[in-house]
Design brief:
Layout (H helix, E strand, L loop, with lengths): L13 E4 L4 E3 L7 E6 L6 H12 L1 H6 L2 E7 L3 H11 L4 E4 L4 H5 L3 E6 L2 E6 L2 E5 L5 E5 L7 H9 L2
Length: 154
């Protein structure tokens, strides 16, 4: 799939959340959605990013912003992650890698000289009409909320 661009319609999503409920992007029409992709539950960078969204969650929701996290981990892993860090937002289980493929964030990675396939940490800000307003490719895990709010001018 070609790389997504700002202004494009966001690809449709239908996935199970941590509780086994089906979540679709259409459910959030009329709201700004922060759709953030992260590599793996309970790893240092992913935990820092999730906790930054957690610590700023009330302020985000007060501005009408919905936070959705996506990784290829399963529902059980998401439940443990949410419980361990008291995360107040929804995590989507993309075990078949459909969403990461549709959003173009699945690809080759390199750690300590070892190449492997995985999720590239990326945040999409989707506007009220369901279009991609912003794409953050260089995510600052400890300040991800500030990055989002700066782009939204809020």
């Amino acid at each position: 799939m070609s790389e997504l661009k700002e202004g494009q319609q966001a690809p449709a999503i239908s996935a199970k959340d941590q509780d086994g409920n089906t979540v679709t992007l259409d459910q959030f029409k009329g709201k700004t959605v922060v759709l953030y992709f992260y590599p793996k539950d309970s790893t240092p960078g992913c935990t820092a990013e999730a906790c930054d969204f957690r610590d700023n969650y009330q302020g985000l929701t007060a501005k009408g912003i919905v936070v959705l996290g996506v990784s290829v981990d399963d529902e059980k892993s998401h439940q443990k992650f949410i419980t361990k860090y008291s995360l107040p937002f929804t995590l989507l289980a993309d075990t078949d890698q459909k969403i990461v493929q549709d959003y173009g964030v699945w690809g080759e990675k390199n750690m300590y000289g070892k190449k492997y396939m995985g999720t590239h940490r990326t945040t999409f800000i989707i506007n009220e009409e369901g279009n991609i307003a912003h794409i953050i490719k260089k995510v600052d895990t400890k300040n991800s909320t500030a990055q989002v709010l700066e782009l939204l001018g809020k």
